[in-house]
Structure formats: structure tokens, C-alpha cells
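Supplementary Methods. Inverse-folding protocol.

Structures were first reduced to a C-alpha cell string of length 231. This string, shown here, constituted the complete conditioning input.
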């Protein structure tokens, strides 16, 4: 009899865990997607002007040596944004990628003085938080593919930044299957990071206000962003 009750408790516990994990998964997908509602742009002409764009990093080439279309399309989008006069400065953020991103942007016609390299963007969370804490910008355009921009805006919202997104061209599904699959887990992780773990950037460092390419004054340094209350 006692053994039966013990088994029943185990089954109930396991069921509750499964329900909880499923709820977390579906909430994460919905919340991240909803964060970008009304703030994602695909037509450069429609993007509201902001002084700075944050270009999220990815490697230039795939392990097999082929060009990474995620990289190519992000550079294409960032350059178009700058050339259209929608932004004055680009922050290219990543770990090992920023130098290659800068070189590609310069080749695309963006002057090097209009580009700031953030080599401590180890994760999207690091890149977004450092935009305010290090570079002093709180309203900016995020450049990446749509699914990535949605997650970045979700993080920016949590820390009180006013971010919009310019979506680079999507990579064909057959070439991006693994990336899309990883994104499902990344959305769950970002909810855990923000609302449960209070995960912070691996490295912040001193403030480095950036100067737009037009030669105007440095962008006023913002106060460090405060996390929003958990829902």
C-alpha cells in the first residue's frame, strides 16, 4: 500500500515537472515573439531614425569554409541602414567576429570612424546590456535576422532600453535548420537568465561613449539600465 502511494507521488511530481517545463517553453516562445510586435522593420525607408545601430555578431564563414549567409545579410542590412541616413554609428558586437564585421562594412561603403567594435559581446545578452552600460545608448536599432532581433528586443525591454529592429534577410530554411532549432532553446534560456538567474554580462568594463560619424558631440552616457520587474 505504501509502495503504491510512493509511486503515485512520483508520477504526480513527474507530471507537474513536465507541465511546468512545457509552460516555460511555450511562454518563452510567445514572450520573445511578442516583444518585437510593431517594432520590426524590413524596409529601410520605414525605419525611424536613431543615432546608433547595434549589429549582432556571427562568424563570417561556416566550418566548411563557405560564406555564412547570416553574416552576409547582416552586413548588407547594416550598411543599407547607414547609407540611408537612418543611423550615424554602428556598434558591431560579438566575440571574435567584430573585426571581420568592420572590414566587411568598410568594404560596403561605411567609413571606419562610424564603426565601434565590441569584442565582449559573448552572448546576445552581453551585447544588449553593454550597449547601455558601456557605450551609453538606450534607444537604438538592432540589426540581425528576425528571430534574433526579437530575442534582443526582449532583453532590451527588460533593461528599460528603447530598441527597434531592422531585420536582415532570412537564410533559407534548409540552410538554417540547426540555428532555428537552437533558437527555441535560446528563448527558454533568456527567460531563465532575466527572470530567475539574473545573469549579467561576462565583462562590462568602463564607460566608452561613442562619437557619431557626423562629428557631433558624444552620445550622452546613459545611466546603467535597471531590470524590469518579473511578470
Amino acid at each position: 500500500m505504501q509502495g503504491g502511494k510512493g509511486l503515485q507521488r512520483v508520477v504526480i511530481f513527474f507530471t507537474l515537472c513536465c507541465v511546468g517545463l512545457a509552460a516555460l517553453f511555450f511562454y518563452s516562445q510567445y514572450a520573445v515573439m511578442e516583444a518585437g510586435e510593431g517594432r520590426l522593420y524590413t524596409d529601410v525607408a520605414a525605419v525611424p531614425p536613431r543615432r546608433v545601430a547595434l549589429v549582432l555578431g556571427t562568424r563570417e564563414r561556416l566550418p566548411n569554409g563557405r560564406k555564412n549567409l547570416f553574416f552576409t545579410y547582416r552586413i548588407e542590412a547594416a550598411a543599407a541602414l547607414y547609407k540611408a541616413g537612418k543611423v550615424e554609428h554602428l556598434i558591431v558586437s560579438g566575440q571574435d567576429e567584430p573585426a571581420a564585421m568592420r572590414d566587411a562594412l568598410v568594404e560596403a561603403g561605411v567609413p571606419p570612424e562610424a564603426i565601434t567594435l565590441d569584442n565582449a559581446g559573448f552572448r546576445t545578452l552581453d551585447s544588449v546590456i553593454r550597449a547601455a552600460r558601456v557605450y551609453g545608448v538606450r534607444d537604438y536599432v538592432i540589426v540581425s535576422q528576425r528571430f534574433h532581433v526579437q530575442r534582443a528586443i526582449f532583453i532590451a525591454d527588460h533593461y528599460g532600453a528603447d530598441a527597434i529592429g531592422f531585420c536582415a534577410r532570412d537564410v533559407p530554411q534548409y540552410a538554417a535548420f540547426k540555428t532555428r532549432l537552437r533558437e527555441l532553446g535560446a528563448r527558454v534560456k533568456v527567460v531563465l537568465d532575466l527572470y530567475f538567474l539574473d545573469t549579467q554580462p561576462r565583462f562590462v568594463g568602463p564607460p566608452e561613449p561613442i562619437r557619431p560619424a557626423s562629428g557631433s558631440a558624444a552620445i550622452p552616457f546613459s545611466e546603467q539600465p535597471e531590470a524590469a520587474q518579473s511578470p
